[in-house]
Amino acid sequence: MSNEIDLDARPVKTRKPWFLSLIGLLTMGGMIAMPFIAGEPGGDEMPDIVRYFGHFHPVILHLPIGIFVLVLFQELIAMFSRHKSARSIVPMFLGSASAVVAVILGFLLYQGGGFEGSELAEDHLWGGTIFACVAVFTFIVRAWTLSPTATQAPFRVFLLASVGVMSYASHDGASITHGKGYLTEYAPDSIRKLLGMEPKEKKEEKVVKPLEEQIVYVDIIQPILNKSCVKCHREEKSKGKFRMDTFELLVKGGKEGDGIEPGNALDSNIIFRAELPEDDDEHMPPEGKKDIEDHELLVVKWWIDQGADPLIKVGELELTDEIRDAIGKLDLTISPESEVEKEESDNPSDELLKTVTELGSEFPGGLTFESQESSNLTFTGVSLRKNLTDENFAKLGSVIHKMVSVDLSATGITDRSVALLAPAESLRMIRLNETGITDASIDTLVKLQNLESVNLFGTKVTDEGVKKLSALPNLKRLYLWQTDVSEEAITDLQKALPEVEIVTGI
Ligand code: HEC
């Protein structure tokens, strides 16, 4: 009892908080030094205990946030109320101490790895450290201004500064866990405007202009190029040093010179390349890629032949019925960007990557992605020859649906493997030559509506089976060399599929 009375009676002025201040300053110095002393984050040599404590960061960090907000409210109330309550150092001690703990745990989390190269994480590390330093300093100021006569302005200034830095740091932190823009994602436009953000996109805004009003290059030509060519001919990836994503670059061309000759479509390199036979090495797009459609090419040629003016409208050009039809067939509702983006975001999922890598060791060099940014697969079993059996091929079951090109030439597979291809809806090319397949395989093939090239050379297919191939709408080439298919049947098929090149060796 007497103790308490003693404390109160002691004159406040004689208890200067030098020691507390020293500890506070040392803590601040330690926190700032921490990232410089510690080595590179990540790495397997990091003991698990670091990660164990690090994972408590998201738990602890809410303590300083709560306490500082509480103290700020307390202070606001104190400013406007006549009743002066006693000042206490306890809340500021808890607030700044928990901030220090949160920073140390956060630092351990960062050291545990996984944030390498993340600017946001680095920003947050420094934001958090600065906050904890300002918090400790505010605590020191609090310790010096406890007496009822002391002026409160310095404490209030630092308290406000702490809360300010804290908001900044916690926003960065939240962006790491929830992704940027988590808070503003659903904000009304008025608030987005206040924050200097773009208004939300109006989804339905795309008005379709009447055909005559459309600008040929912008509304028609560039979207066609975006669809078939730009994914390989743009800033990030300019094959042949040729970009096709702007008008100027399209005209400028690449290594081989001008991309287009205004007024002369047939002399324009893009047309020349696209019209080369498909098995020509220089054909564009390269083999295995989805070809530019004939009606699309027709429209591009029409525009080039009439001068390739980038600003001219459809109504200002000569419009034949053929061109009108071709334009009608275009799918112009797709905006140029969305098509390119779709290609870019078509990256293989981690899971697919893992499966393909695993299967890669089973079929070395046999299973590959069609291109770097594609999740489409190509398979060739040619190097395995007769060692590739139905049993082996069945191991590819989980990735069959991603295949666009399958070469089983001269392997040991039978109709059973071909039946496994039923889910390969995107399959464009298949080689089954010199295998033991029969008409039974054709029943599977006719369901793969994207097939463009089918090689059945040297197989046991008959008139009966081949007849069914007329149901493949995209078929361009069919190899029937050295089969039992009769000349008659081939003539009939050619009649049914006048566009298809049937290679018979006759
Ligand atoms: C899958 C990627 C890919 C796609 C899609 C593609 N190209 Fe190419 N393109 C290439 C590569 C690789 C080269 C360089 C090798 C060559 O010259 O054949 C090239 C070169 C060219 C060149 C020669 C440029 C020069 O001056 O050297 C032209 C012209 C061209 N492409 C036109 C097109 C057109 C038109 C399309 C769309 C119908 C298209 N490309 C689609 C990959 C692609």
Description:
It contains 21 helices and nine strands. It has 506 residues and is mainly alpha-helical. It has three domains: 2-178; 206-344, no CATH class; 350-503, Leucine-rich repeat, LRR (right-handed beta-alpha superhelix). Strands 3-4-5-6-7-8-9 form a seven-stranded mixed beta sheet. Helix 2 packs parallel to helix 6 (90-111), helix 3 (48-54) crosses helix 6 (90-111) and helix 5 (62-80) packs antiparallel against helix 8 (153-178). The longest helix is centred in the N-terminal third of the chain and has 26 residues, at 119-144. The structure holds heme C. Heme C (HEC) binds next to helix 12.
Quick overview of this protein structure:
With 506 residues, the protein is mainly α.
Give a quick account of the main beta sheet: strands, pairing sense, barrel closure. 7 strands, mixed
Share in helix: 40-55%
- Gyration radius, in Å: 36 Å
In what range is the share of β-strand residues? 5-15%
Amino-to-carboxy terminus distance: 117 Å
- Would you list the SSEs in sequence order as H and E? HHHHHHHHHHEEHHHHHHEEHEHEHEHEHE
Structural domains: how many:
3
C-alpha geometry: elongated
Overall mean confidence score, pLDDT:
85
Major β-sheet strand ordering: 3-4-5-6-7-8-9
